[in-house]
């Protein structure tokens, strides 16, 4: 039988609240228990989970604050075993984008990409990263409650009428890679000209082809 860590109890409570769409209750459950955590990794993850839930509630300023706290704590850690540091940066990027801070949003995306490449070079072992979250890689896997909730709250709901999803079904993997590369090049070009809104939009569009 798998033994979970000290955070399992309040995270199980939070999961039950999320299952009935009570994100505010889930956030309160996690926040009141943060002081009981001893490991910086777990504290950072708690703020990360709160960030994604505040984003879902449309409270982007609170989400940005939570993601920033997570990023600050993670910056003091050399490596995190089970997840990538790119998750918090991508989360903050998305909230900044929705709040109209396009410059901050693209800067976070660029930092996230550099950090993930560095992590892969140091250790190619599989871990929860933002791309795998978008792909739904971990949806059916048995995870600790603290990561189970992360997958739940960070997942991106796709529209039934998403034209990109339909387009992906009829083109080859090679063509998908070409489209992503083209959009990433466009993003870089727009960034160099200071058009941060167009730059972040190109990257966000590229991510829909993952």
Short description:
With 210 residues, this protein is an all-alpha fold. It has helices at 8-19, 23-31, 40-57, 60-74, 86-98, 102-122, 130-135, 145-154, 163-168, 173-192, 196-207. The model has no long low-confidence stretch (mean pLDDT 90).
Describe the structure.
It is built from eleven helices and no strands. With 210 residues, it is mainly α. It is globular and about 45 Å long. The longest helix is centred in the middle third of the chain and has 21 residues. α1 runs antiparallel to α2. The protein has two domains: 150 residues, Serine Threonine Protein Phosphatase 5, Tetratricopeptide repeat; 51 residues. The mean pLDDT is 90. It starts with 7 loop residues before the first helix and ends with a helix.
